[in-house]
Protein backbone atom coordinates (compact mmCIF):
# COMPACT_ATOMS: atom_id res chain seq x y z
CA UNK A 1 0.00 0.00 0.00
CA UNK A 2 1.25 3.52 -0.85
CA UNK A 3 0.51 6.81 0.92
CA UNK A 4 -0.04 10.21 -0.75
CA UNK A 5 3.71 10.66 -1.27
CA UNK A 6 4.16 7.31 -2.93
CA UNK A 7 5.84 5.62 0.05
CA UNK A 8 5.09 1.98 0.60
CA UNK A 9 3.33 1.27 3.91
CA UNK A 10 3.46 -2.16 5.48
CA UNK A 11 0.11 -2.56 7.25
CA UNK A 12 1.17 -5.71 8.99
CA UNK A 13 4.21 -3.97 10.46
CA UNK A 14 2.07 -1.04 11.66
CA UNK A 15 -0.41 -3.44 13.18
CA UNK A 16 2.35 -5.27 15.02
CA UNK A 17 3.74 -2.00 16.36
CA UNK A 18 0.29 -0.86 17.47
CA UNK A 19 -0.35 -4.16 19.22
CA UNK A 20 3.06 -3.99 20.84
CA UNK A 21 2.41 -0.45 22.13
CA UNK A 22 -1.01 -1.48 23.45
CA UNK A 23 0.43 -4.52 25.18
CA UNK A 24 3.24 -2.45 26.65
CA UNK A 25 1.35 0.62 27.86
CA UNK A 26 -2.14 -0.72 28.63
CA UNK A 27 -1.09 -2.44 31.89
CA UNK A 28 0.88 0.65 32.91
CA UNK A 29 -2.06 2.91 32.08
CA UNK A 30 -4.53 0.75 33.96
CA UNK A 31 -2.20 0.54 36.93
CA UNK A 32 -1.70 4.31 36.84
CA UNK A 33 -5.46 4.92 36.77
CA UNK A 34 -5.97 2.49 39.64
CA UNK A 35 -3.16 4.15 41.58
CA UNK A 36 -4.68 7.58 40.94
CA UNK A 37 -8.14 6.53 42.12
CA UNK A 38 -6.90 4.70 45.19
CA UNK A 39 -4.39 7.46 45.94
CA UNK A 40 -7.03 10.18 45.83
CA UNK A 41 -9.24 8.12 48.11
CA UNK A 42 -6.40 7.62 50.58
CA UNK A 43 -5.45 11.31 50.47
CA UNK A 44 -9.03 12.39 51.14
CA UNK A 45 -9.36 9.81 53.92
CA UNK A 46 -6.11 10.96 55.53
CA UNK A 47 -7.04 14.64 55.27
CA UNK A 48 -10.49 13.99 56.79
CA UNK A 49 -8.88 12.07 59.66
CA UNK A 50 -6.39 14.88 60.17
CA UNK A 51 -9.20 17.41 60.03
CA UNK A 52 -11.05 15.52 62.75
CA UNK A 53 -7.99 15.20 65.00
CA UNK A 54 -6.65 18.73 64.62
CA UNK A 55 -10.13 20.27 64.76
CA UNK A 56 -10.50 19.16 68.38
CA UNK A 57 -7.17 20.66 69.47
CA UNK A 58 -6.77 23.75 67.28
CA UNK A 59 -9.75 24.80 65.12
CA UNK A 60 -7.78 27.82 63.92
CA UNK A 61 -5.00 25.75 62.32
CA UNK A 62 -7.37 23.06 61.15
CA UNK A 63 -8.67 24.19 57.73
CA UNK A 64 -5.46 25.92 56.68
CA UNK A 65 -3.18 22.96 57.44
CA UNK A 66 -5.54 20.35 55.98
CA UNK A 67 -5.92 22.30 52.75
CA UNK A 68 -2.16 22.71 52.40
CA UNK A 69 -1.42 19.03 53.10
CA UNK A 70 -4.13 17.93 50.68
CA UNK A 71 -2.63 20.04 47.86
CA UNK A 72 0.92 18.77 48.50
CA UNK A 73 -0.13 15.09 48.64
CA UNK A 74 -2.15 15.37 45.43
CA UNK A 75 0.79 16.93 43.57
CA UNK A 76 3.07 14.10 44.79
CA UNK A 77 0.46 11.57 43.68
CA UNK A 78 0.29 13.07 40.18
CA UNK A 79 4.09 12.94 39.90
CA UNK A 80 4.07 9.26 40.92
CA UNK A 81 1.32 8.41 38.43
CA UNK A 82 3.19 10.21 35.64
CA UNK A 83 6.34 8.21 36.36
CA UNK A 84 4.34 4.95 36.23
CA UNK A 85 3.10 5.77 32.73
CA UNK A 86 6.65 6.36 31.57
CA UNK A 87 6.96 10.13 31.77
CA UNK A 88 10.36 11.21 33.04
CA UNK A 89 9.92 12.51 36.57
CA UNK A 90 12.55 15.20 36.20
CA UNK A 91 10.90 16.49 33.04
CA UNK A 92 7.49 16.38 34.65
CA UNK A 93 8.73 18.27 37.71
CA UNK A 94 10.34 20.86 35.42
CA UNK A 95 7.04 21.31 33.57
CA UNK A 96 5.13 21.55 36.85
CA UNK A 97 7.66 24.09 38.15
CA UNK A 98 7.41 26.22 35.02
CA UNK A 99 3.63 26.03 35.13
CA UNK A 100 3.68 26.92 38.83
CA UNK A 101 5.86 29.95 38.12
CA UNK A 102 3.53 31.14 35.38
CA UNK A 103 0.48 30.57 37.53
CA UNK A 104 2.17 32.32 40.45
CA UNK A 105 2.85 35.40 38.33
CA UNK A 106 -0.73 35.41 37.12
CA UNK A 107 -2.15 34.89 40.60
CA UNK A 108 -0.06 37.26 42.69
CA UNK A 109 -3.10 38.21 44.73
CA UNK A 110 -3.68 34.58 45.69
CA UNK A 111 -0.06 34.23 46.75
CA UNK A 112 -0.47 37.34 48.90
CA UNK A 113 -3.55 35.76 50.47
CA UNK A 114 -1.59 32.56 51.13
CA UNK A 115 1.21 34.54 52.77
CA UNK A 116 -1.41 36.45 54.77
CA UNK A 117 -2.87 33.18 56.01
CA UNK A 118 0.57 32.03 57.17
CA UNK A 119 1.09 35.31 59.03
CA UNK A 120 -2.32 34.99 60.69
CA UNK A 121 -1.46 31.49 61.92
CA UNK A 122 1.97 32.58 63.18
CA UNK A 123 1.04 35.81 64.97
CA UNK A 124 -2.57 34.82 65.74
CA UNK A 125 -4.33 38.21 65.81
CA UNK A 126 -7.52 36.15 66.00
CA UNK A 127 -8.62 32.53 66.07
CA UNK A 128 -11.69 30.51 65.14
CA UNK A 129 -14.58 31.50 67.40
CA UNK A 130 -13.35 35.07 68.02
CA UNK A 131 -15.56 38.03 67.20
CA UNK A 132 -13.74 40.47 64.94
CA UNK A 133 -14.54 43.64 63.03
CA UNK A 134 -12.70 43.89 59.71
CA UNK A 135 -13.34 45.24 56.22
CA UNK A 136 -16.57 46.82 57.48
CA UNK A 137 -17.98 43.53 58.82
CA UNK A 138 -18.55 42.37 62.40
CA UNK A 139 -18.95 38.68 63.07
CA UNK A 140 -17.62 35.43 64.47
CA UNK A 141 -14.68 33.71 62.75
CA UNK A 142 -15.91 30.38 61.34
CA UNK A 143 -12.89 29.19 59.30
CA UNK A 144 -9.35 30.25 58.42
CA UNK A 145 -8.66 28.69 55.02
CA UNK A 146 -5.54 28.78 52.83
CA UNK A 147 -6.59 31.93 50.97
CA UNK A 148 -9.62 33.26 52.79
CA UNK A 149 -11.14 33.72 56.24
CA UNK A 150 -14.84 33.07 56.68
CA UNK A 151 -16.85 34.98 59.29
CA UNK A 152 -20.51 34.67 60.18
CA UNK A 153 -22.21 37.97 60.98
CA UNK A 154 -24.78 38.30 63.73
CA UNK A 155 -27.58 38.83 61.21
CA UNK A 156 -26.75 35.40 59.74
CA UNK A 157 -24.64 36.35 56.72
CA UNK A 158 -21.51 34.53 55.58
CA UNK A 159 -18.65 36.87 54.66
CA UNK A 160 -15.45 35.69 52.95
CA UNK A 161 -12.45 38.01 53.41
CA UNK A 162 -9.05 37.51 51.69
CA UNK A 163 -6.27 36.72 54.16
CA UNK A 164 -4.03 39.31 52.51
CA UNK A 165 -6.45 42.07 53.49
CA UNK A 166 -6.69 40.84 57.07
CA UNK A 167 -2.93 40.59 57.52
CA UNK A 168 -2.27 44.11 56.15
CA UNK A 169 -5.23 46.09 57.45
CA UNK A 170 -6.49 47.21 60.83
CA UNK A 171 -8.95 44.86 62.51
CA UNK A 172 -10.62 44.80 65.91
CA UNK A 173 -10.76 41.61 67.97
CA UNK A 174 -13.41 42.03 70.65
CA UNK A 175 -12.94 38.53 72.11
CA UNK A 176 -9.39 38.84 73.41
CA UNK A 177 -10.33 39.91 76.93
CA UNK A 178 -12.95 38.35 79.17
CA UNK A 179 -14.45 41.67 80.27
CA UNK A 180 -15.29 44.96 78.59
CA UNK A 181 -16.47 48.43 79.53
CA UNK A 182 -20.03 49.28 78.54
CA UNK A 183 -20.13 53.00 77.70
CA UNK A 184 -23.49 54.74 78.03
CA UNK A 185 -24.57 58.37 78.20
CA UNK A 186 -27.89 59.56 79.63
CA UNK A 187 -29.17 63.12 79.40
CA UNK A 188 -31.21 64.71 82.20
CA UNK A 189 -32.84 68.13 82.43
CA UNK A 190 -31.04 71.15 83.85
CA UNK A 191 -33.68 71.39 86.59
CA UNK A 192 -33.18 67.76 87.71
CA UNK A 193 -31.04 66.65 90.67
CA UNK A 194 -27.69 65.33 89.39
CA UNK A 195 -26.85 63.48 92.60
CA UNK A 196 -30.22 61.75 92.60
CA UNK A 197 -29.75 60.60 88.99
CA UNK A 198 -26.26 59.28 89.81
CA UNK A 199 -27.66 57.31 92.77
CA UNK A 200 -30.28 55.75 90.48
CA UNK A 201 -27.58 54.61 88.05
CA UNK A 202 -25.51 53.22 90.93
CA UNK A 203 -28.53 51.31 92.26
CA UNK A 204 -29.30 49.80 88.85
CA UNK A 205 -25.65 48.79 88.54
CA UNK A 206 -25.68 47.00 91.91
CA UNK A 207 -28.98 45.22 91.20
CA UNK A 208 -27.77 43.62 87.97
CA UNK A 209 -25.87 40.36 88.57
CA UNK A 210 -23.89 40.81 85.36
CA UNK A 211 -22.21 43.97 86.66
CA UNK A 212 -18.54 43.64 87.64
CA UNK A 213 -17.33 45.49 90.71
CA UNK A 214 -13.72 45.44 89.54
CA UNK A 215 -12.85 47.72 87.84
CA UNK A 216 -15.27 50.06 89.57
CA UNK A 217 -17.92 51.76 87.42
CA UNK A 218 -17.56 55.41 86.47
CA UNK A 219 -20.55 57.75 86.86
CA UNK A 220 -19.94 61.44 86.26
CA UNK A 221 -21.05 64.49 84.30
CA UNK A 222 -19.71 64.14 80.76
CA UNK A 223 -20.82 67.52 79.49
CA UNK A 224 -23.37 70.30 79.50
CA UNK A 225 -25.33 70.04 76.29
CA UNK A 226 -27.69 72.49 74.63
CA UNK A 227 -30.75 70.85 76.16
CA UNK A 228 -29.47 68.41 78.78
CA UNK A 229 -26.87 67.56 81.39
CA UNK A 230 -25.11 64.46 80.03
CA UNK A 231 -24.26 61.78 82.59
CA UNK A 232 -21.54 59.30 81.62
CA UNK A 233 -22.18 55.75 82.88
CA UNK A 234 -19.33 53.26 82.37
CA UNK A 235 -19.81 49.89 84.09
CA UNK A 236 -17.70 46.77 83.36
CA UNK A 237 -19.27 43.48 82.32
CA UNK A 238 -18.26 40.13 80.84
CA UNK A 239 -17.53 40.21 77.11
CA UNK A 240 -20.45 37.91 76.30
CA UNK A 241 -22.85 40.08 78.35
CA UNK A 242 -21.91 43.40 76.76
CA UNK A 243 -24.78 43.97 74.33
CA UNK A 244 -27.56 42.28 76.36
CA UNK A 245 -26.45 44.39 79.34
CA UNK A 246 -26.40 47.56 77.23
CA UNK A 247 -29.91 47.01 75.85
CA UNK A 248 -31.38 46.01 79.21
CA UNK A 249 -29.82 49.00 80.97
CA UNK A 250 -31.29 51.45 78.45
CA UNK A 251 -34.76 50.25 79.32
CA UNK A 252 -34.12 50.08 83.08
CA UNK A 253 -32.73 53.62 83.23
CA UNK A 254 -35.68 55.06 81.31
CA UNK A 255 -38.20 53.37 83.62
CA UNK A 256 -36.27 54.29 86.78
CA UNK A 257 -35.94 57.93 85.73
CA UNK A 258 -39.68 58.09 85.00
CA UNK A 259 -40.52 56.64 88.42
CA UNK A 260 -38.18 59.04 90.25
CA UNK A 261 -39.25 62.11 88.29
CA UNK A 262 -35.98 62.55 86.41
CA UNK A 263 -36.65 63.95 82.95
CA UNK A 264 -34.85 62.92 79.78
CA UNK A 265 -35.16 66.06 77.61
CA UNK A 266 -35.38 66.00 73.86
CA UNK A 267 -33.89 68.63 71.54
CA UNK A 268 -35.88 71.85 71.54
CA UNK A 269 -35.42 75.44 70.46
CA UNK A 270 -36.88 78.65 71.86
CA UNK A 271 -38.20 81.08 69.23
CA UNK A 272 -38.62 84.77 70.20
CA UNK A 273 -40.90 87.00 68.10
CA UNK A 274 -40.48 90.75 68.03
CA UNK A 275 -42.97 93.25 66.62
CA UNK A 276 -41.35 95.52 64.05
CA UNK A 277 -42.00 99.25 64.34
CA UNK A 278 -44.39 100.86 61.80
CA UNK A 279 -41.76 103.49 61.20
Structure, described:
- Residues 110-175 form the Mechanosensitive ion channel MscS domain.
- Belongs to the MscS (TC 1.A.23) family.
- Residues 68-108 form the Mechanosensitive ion channel transmembrane helices 2/3 domain.
- There is one protein chain.
- The chain has 279 residues and is of the alpha+beta class.
- The protein has three domains: 12-121, Helix Hairpins; 130-173, SH3 type barrels, CATH 2.30.30; 179-260, Alpha-Beta Plaits (2-Layer Sandwich).
- The protein is 53% helix and 18% strand.
- The chain is built from seven helices and eleven strands.
- The chain has helices at 11-57, 59-85, 89-106, 108-123, 163-168, 194-207, 242-260; strands at 131-134, 137-144, 148-153, 158-162, 172-173, 179-181, 184-188, 211-212, 218-224, 229-234, 236-238.
- It has a five-stranded antiparallel sheet with strand order 4-3-2-1-5. Strands 6-11-8 form a three-stranded antiparallel sheet. Strands 7-10-9 form a three-stranded antiparallel sheet, covered by helices on one side.
- Strand 2 (137-144) and strand 3 form a beta hairpin.
- The longest helix has 47 residues, at 11-57.
- The model is unreliable at 1-6 (pLDDT under 50).
